[in-house]
Amino acid sequence: MTERLSNATLGRLPAGVARPPYDRSRLTPGLVHLGVGAFHRAHQAVCTEAALASEPDGALDWGIVGASLRSPATRAALAPQDGLYSLAVRDGLGERLAVVGALLDVLVLPGSAEALLGRMADPATRIVGLTVTEKGYHLDPASGALDLAAPAVAADLASPRAPGSVHGLIVEALRRRRAAGLAPFAVLSSDNLSDNGRVLRRAVLAFAGALDPELARWIEGEAAFPSTMVDRITPATTEADRLRIDRALGLEDAWPVVTEPFSQWVIEDDFPLGRPAWEAGGAVFSSDIGAWERMKLRMLNGAHSAIAYLGQLKGHPTVDAAVADPEIAGLVEGLWAETAGTFAAPSDPAAYARALMARFRNPALGHRTAQIAMDGSQKLPPRLLAPLRDRLAKGAPCGHLTTAVGAWMAYVVVRIRAGGAAALDDPLADKIAARLAGVDRTPAALVGALLSLEAVFGRDLADSETLREALVEAVERYLGGYA
Ligand code: CS2
């Protein structure tokens, strides 16, 4: 049997596999990260690793304690490996492997909630990061405000000392810090939300305010919520990845992470208690995160969602297969032409678009369109509906944006018809299925039912006749075979 990757076996890795160049036995925790999935381990943890490696003889006090909010799987895989995992960077030219050492431990909720709160309230913890995907924020997607009635949020408001949501955890840990006379940690969202720091701050303040206005005022005055733009395409790891990587390591790694060569992190430099030297990993500090975020969300993620829905409707399982289809490549180019004018670009959008298409064509990632298609109700507003709104207001053509939104609608209808709400991976699946139940099968009726989802489209988009007509046309085109 192959031995497991661990501190004890690190020395046996083949020469070509990079490993932590610092003394791991001296590494102590400084960061807590909520949502320690593949993306965090391919991105922020790798920048942290570079920061640690940049001062191997310095104070190694920025180790990461991760928390899994929903599943014990990450801990089960990584605890026997002392938190070590390998990162496989892949493109058409091959695969580069590195073992990352920055992650010290993984705690799983709900069992370890108390240990996690203790760690967050510890004076050594100076930053609490989050990658919990859009739905982990429990926001009303159209307005961006915290949904105080969402079951996870309501449950934490009812028993705030034993929280399970990100807001509940952050507020309870901050309450304990305040009681202990400690300054707050910086709260760092690395999710694909527009103005993620600002949005999270508003949500945390709303949550705290509902419990204890004094505490909310303290958080408002003292705590930093820097915004960030994060980017690295990181598909879910497959069994084939595991087997291939184990062979290359000569050791078993139960949960390696596969990613692309490109990585970008733009961060607002607001860390009152200090931060790792993330620039060593290529992070860039800027005071204008909004511009970076809008370009990335509207161009990369907007195109991704369009590719995912159209790819699913046309039977393309992966992004590279989908963009090899001229109709989809054409839609993506058209989408970029429409979105380009809707934000103040921090760099040349044409060059950015060319680089994006090359990344989408990466043949070694196998990024599944079904994975990106998840949670459309949360993803559409910042990616496609925000630029659509801007263009509609100017009376500018938006045929490609509406085609992409229409593809989402057609996809939703196809899934729900095939297997009911359970077949749609989306936090609003039940609501969406209920809207569609009993309506006519005509494209106009289906579009009407979906546009009435105020949490997604707001009032304004539902009221736009121009949009409605364009969507009916798109849905007709893609649902033709199914209607
Ligand atoms: C993707 C993103 O799954 C999705 O919705 O669009 O995860 C995307 O791969 C990342 O944002 C790239 O940085």
Instruction: Based on the coordinates given, report the CATH architecture of the largest domain.
Output: 3-Layer(aba) Sandwich
CATH class type of the largest domain: Alpha Beta
Q: How far apart, in Å, are the first and last alpha carbons?
A: 53 Å
Looking at the structure, what is the overall shape?
globular
Q: How many whole angstroms does the radius of gyration measure?
A: 23 Å
Ligands and ions found: D-mannonic acid
Strand content: 5-15%
Helix proportion: 40-55%
Class of secondary structure makeup: alpha/beta
Mean pLDDT equals: 96
Q: Major sheet: size, sense and barrel closure?
A: 5 strands, parallel
Question: Helix tally?
Answer: 20
Number of strands: 11
Strand order across the biggest sheet? 5-2-1-6-7
Low-confidence stretches: none
Q: Provide the CATH topology of the largest domain.
A: Rossmann fold
Q: Structurally, how many domains make up the residues?
A: 2
The CATH superfamily title of the largest domain: NAD(P)-binding Rossmann-like Domain
Structural features, described:
The protein has 483 residues and is α/β, with parallel strands linked by helices. 48% of the residues lie in helices and 11% in strands. It has two domains: 7-287, 3-Layer(aba) Sandwich (Rossmann fold), CATH 3.40.50.720; 290-482, Orthogonal Bundle (N-(1-d-carboxylethyl)-l-norvaline Dehydrogenase, domain 2). The strands form three sheets. The chain has a five-stranded parallel β-sheet with strand order 5-2-1-6-7, sandwiched between helices. A hairpin with a 2-residue loop joins strand 3 (85-91) and strand 4. The termini are far apart. The structure holds D-mannonic acid. D-mannonic acid (CS2) binds next to helix 10 and helix 14. Keywords: Oxidoreductase.
